[in-house]
Amino acid sequence: MPVEVILPKVDMDMETGTIEAWHVKEGDLVRQGDTIFEIGTNKAVMEVEAPATGAIRNITAETGVPISVGTPVAWIYLDGEAATTPSEPAAAAATVAAATPLPQAPIAHAAAMSLATSGLRATPLARRIARQNALDLKSVTGTGPRGRIGEKDVTAALILRSDPQDRVSKDVPGGSGASASILRDAAGAAPQDEGSGKKSCRQSEGRLQPFSAIRRIVASRLSESMRTAPHFYLTSEIEMTAARDLLGRLAKRHERIGAPKPSLTVLIARVAARILRDHPVINASAEGEATRFHARIDIGIAMERDGDLVVPVLRDAGAMDMPAMAREFARLRDGMAKRTLTPVELGGGTFTISNLGMYGVDSFTAIINPPQGAILAVGRTIDKPVGRDGQIVLRPMANFTLSSDHRIVDGVAAARFMADLREALENPEVLL
Amino acid sequence: MPSDTLEAVSEIRELSYAEAVREALGQAMEADERVFLFGEDVGVYGGAFGVSGDLVHRFGTERVIDTPISELGIAGAAVGAAITGMRPVLEIQFSDFVTLAMEQLVNQAAKIRFMFGGKASVPMVVRLPGGSGTGAAAQHSQSLEAWFAHVPGLKVLQPSTPHDAKGMLLAAIDDPNPVLIFEHKLLYKTKGHVPAEAYRVPIGQAAIRREGTDVTIVGSSIMARKAEAAAERLAADGISAEVIDLRSIRPIDFTTIAESVRKTHRLLVVYEGVKTMGIGAEISAMIAESEVFDFLDAPIIRLGGADSPIPYNPVLEKAAVPQEDDIVTAAANLVRRGEA
Amino acid sequence: MSARKAEEATRPNQRPELAALDDETVARALTRMHLIRKFEEAAEASYMRGLIHGTMHLSIGQEASAVGTTLPLEAHDYILSTHRGHGHCIARGAEPKLMFAEFFGKETGYCKGRGGSMHIADVEGGNLGANGIVGGGLPIAVGVGMSIKAQKNGRVCMVFFGDGASNEGAFHEALNMASIWKLPVVFVCENNKYGMSMDIGRAMAVANVADRASAYGMPGHSLDGNDLAGVSAVAKEAVARARSGGGPSLIECKTYRWRGHSKSDRNLYRSKEEIEEWRAQDPIRRLEDELKAHDRFDAAALMKLEEDAQREIDSAVEFARACPDPDPKDLTRDVYAL
């Protein structure tokens, strides 16, 4: 029996997931434990390992399309097994939609293609429409009984093609004409006008790239944040002399004890974690018409990976000393680069720090990472002339901007937090 | 004014199915002296289901002829009369009894024209009350129409409405071939609009009783009526079912079925005869063999009679043939889940 | 009437059945008996030469029955025949060349090659067809009788069947209905002793098929089926009764088929002696001998009748062999009338 590869549930409230990338292709040999695809949930992206050793067959799920948890997305055929249609995938949960652009198979090769798709369950109508539009049925996820691909699955796949006008075929001349109308009917708004003027117009609009799963998540979450949380912003310019000195000393100590060298971001996180204890309303979330005060301080650190925003979380940061935090931070950054972080590690913080100082940004305002109540945006540290004891002197200065959810945080509460932040960074001994 | 009024009355005139058949017989006998009715108890008794009624008083015992209980004999007599210039209409009292007449219908009536190189024709009509639902048990409740639809040379009709019962009987009497009309016993009392004049409903043309887009339900005789009722309920449930009343199963109007399936992509065939090797099998295969196959978006589903004789017990009897609920369920599952 | 009586009186030494047949009628009857015999022999020869696609049921030895019963029929009367029906067709006046064409499966045959040996029909000529089903024609004859009665056209329907068919339900249903409605039907049973291999004595509890007529209230005649004149006399009476509205009759012609039931018959159920005994009762020679004995025909005249018949059959075979086969594209042409 071939082993079924399903879209796994990797998070508590996960109902659908998106395959971000396949690491294998049809026919590849995989060993149990090899990463075969990446899955995106509404919080994170994670890798899925092969459940068995064998050949990958019948990859039915394309990337970038939400798929219900438990849907079979591929099969692993053990040595010597013939690649036939898998009998009864256990979990036949429905796919939300299916398919994407595909290698363009000329219609003349339809026969070859139908051979290639003979192992699939698909209705005659689905096969017909796929054939006419040079759509490889292997890329379509069936939502019918036992994964059968129906007309609606195929038309959904065709709609999702980035350039449907180029590929949705008209019916063959002299044919019934019914198929084109079927496609149009089924596809609803499938474009029909193929005039050249319209085409050139389209080309001038540049490249259209669909969102990655993470981009979709970020887009939807941040939009929601701006829509539901009334933001207000407090900015403080803080002298970083003491913090720099402290970082220097900590670097030596960490080197001595074998802990990673602390970065300014880690130091700020450590300081924030400490003072958040005294500002529970900043470490809180709006929940309906109530404020949720979090028992633990979990600080998310905004990071960039391949152009996407991800936020690994320093879990229970309030309980960490500096070496522990440096170690945890290093582990998260490493795990993120290696894509080994779990969705749990990539979500669920209570407060977020976003530091763009290393990119030379002086200051910025950040959008709160919902459902958190505040986010701290850190600009670059730069020597600036400041007045000290009646003298103008150069001091390393940095802008800190706190975005707060006004539903739960008032201006004074936020100001008090910023005052304590300044005091702690300028005189770290107060933390002792 | 008075004539207008009469016309208006005529337009909404309702007859029962049995009355419609009787009216057709009467009109045919009035119009053509070659037409005569014969069978068991069709005379003064008026027919076992009251179809011939008072015809014997109108046309006399020479043209409304009681016969001995000799199904084979009377079927053969119909053949003999037909090939020598008459237009006999034979009633087989219960369609089950046609098993006794198979030889004459299958070996003789159906084949004479062919065997004789087209030099004879057999213009006879056999009316066969059939179907279950009357508690008449296994030997008086069968639906054997598919047997005859298997025989080249015969035509087999299953009108479902009083209108068609009259129009198709008149068309059958005109037809130069042997035509068997299976009349469902439960339909005899159903009423419907029947024009007074002698009109014809063409043989071999299905009727689309209701247009729809989600699923095609094909049935004939009482199943067409049940399918209509089921479609009404399905509509309330958001499913648009197209109902095709076959009316004639040989010749069968495949074009109408095919065009409908091309549109709806789903086919449910409903028939009272035993499901196995039945009408549904033929229609399914015709679709599967045709170019319409490529327009199917779900398996074809057959709802047919159980692989059982018709039982006496009323609960069992209902369970042995498709009911309206079964059609609703099957059609909904076909549309929603792609299976029965 | 008086002229005929006078003519019969000129044959005072002959039995009345023979005396009732004038020379022309006798010659016609003899010619038809020869044609039947020659037709069957030519059919058998064609079969042995591989020219025939199917089987056949030969009526050699039964010629007097076919010709004698049909002799009193008029041109517009009907007959219905059996699987052993070549003789009935010829007796009724069918053209041997069109019969052979049918026999060879040709488009020019009586049934355009669709019917073959067992289904030769000539509907326009009043032959409503031979029938492959034992007893198949009997109920049809009832309907034909109903037609005749309804149309008041004065015709008669004669239906042939074998001893085996008299054990079919159809026989009893048909005789009963024909009798209660007094239909103009003559039922002719050609009792050749065997239903395929089943001896009539083992298949039937009464001695004669004709005995069954009394159950249906009609006259039953059991006679020597190899005596043309005798058969003809009884048939004449039955036809007259039918035509006059007196109702049906049952005639049983006891006769014998010299050949087997069909071409696959190995005659395991009867003896050579029995066959030889019946060959000695050859209906053609019996008639010829009787005519010679009464000096009604000389040997040369009789020989000429036979030779003419042989020539007609030979040319019929020649004609038929040259005819075109049907076109397969016309296969379903005549399934339905349009």
List keywords for this structure.
heterotrimer; A: 432 residues; alpha+beta; OB fold (Dihydrolipoamide Acetyltransferase, E2P); Chloramphenicol Acetyltransferase; 2 domains; 6-stranded mixed sheet; 4-stranded antiparallel sheet; 11 helices; 18 strands; elongated; B: 340 residues; alpha/beta; Rossmann fold; 7-stranded mixed sheet; 5-stranded mixed sheet; 13 helices; 14 strands; globular; thiamine pyrophosphate (chain C); oxidoreductase (chain C)
Describe this structure in words.
Chain A: Its cofactor is (R)-lipoate. Chain A: InterPro entries: 2-oxoA_DH_lipoyl-BS, 2-oxoacid_DH_actylTfrase, Biotin_lipoyl, CAT-like_dom_sf, E2/Pdx1, E3-bd_dom_sf, PSBD, Single_hybrid_motif. The complex is a heterotrimer of chains A (432), B (340) and C (338). With 432 residues, chain A is an alpha+beta fold. In chain A, the strands form five sheets. Chain A has a six-stranded mixed β-sheet. About 18% of the residues of chain A have low confidence. Helix content of chain B is 39%, strand content 19%. Chain B contains 13 helices and 14 strands. Chain B is globular, with a radius of gyration of 20 Å. The N and C termini of chain B lie far apart (56 Å). In chain C, strand 6, helix 10 and strand 7 form a beta-alpha-beta unit. In chain C, helix 3 packs across helix 4. At the B-C interface, helix 4, helix 5 and helix 6 of B face helix 7 and helix 8 of C.
- Count of runs of 4 or more consecutive helical residues of chain C: 13
As for the CATH topology of the largest domain in chain A, it is Chloramphenicol Acetyltransferase
In the CATH scheme, the class of the largest domain in chain A would be Alpha Beta
Radius of gyration of chain A: 27 Å
Q: Provide the domain count of chain C.
A: 1
Oligomer: heterotrimer
Query: How would you spell out the order of helices and strands of chain C?
Result: HHHHEHHHEHEEEHEHEHHH
Domain unit count of chain A: 2
Q: Strand order, biggest sheet of chain C?
A: 1-2-3-7-6
Helical percentage of chain C: 40-55%
- Helix percentage range of chain A: 25-40%
Number of DSSP E strands of chain C: 7
What about the largest sheet of chain A?
6 strands, mixed
- What class do helices, strands and sheet pairing of chain C give? alpha/beta
What CATH first level of chain C would be assigned?
A: Alpha Beta
Instruction: Give the second-level CATH assignment, the architecture of the largest domain in chain A.
Output: 2-Layer Sandwich
The radius of gyration of chain C is 20 Å
CATH topology of chain C: Rossmann fold
